[in-house]
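User: Fold this; tokens only.

Assistant: Input:
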Amino acid sequence: MRAISNDKVNSIYSLLRSKKSNSKVAKQVGVSRTTVQKYRSSLKMSGNVNEAGRPSLISQRMVNYTR
């Protein structure tokens, strides 16, 4: 497997952030759809991850006050 240049990786990330489909990104950059999917999933992993579980009934200010 050949390494992809940093320019192509940056292009993939910028196109994915602009809500382009995997197929369109792959055609525009010149890589496979599988490669684009790999970078899309890594982008999701590094994004904001919501905490699981029941939402808090009190504010963060009140939590800090009760400590």
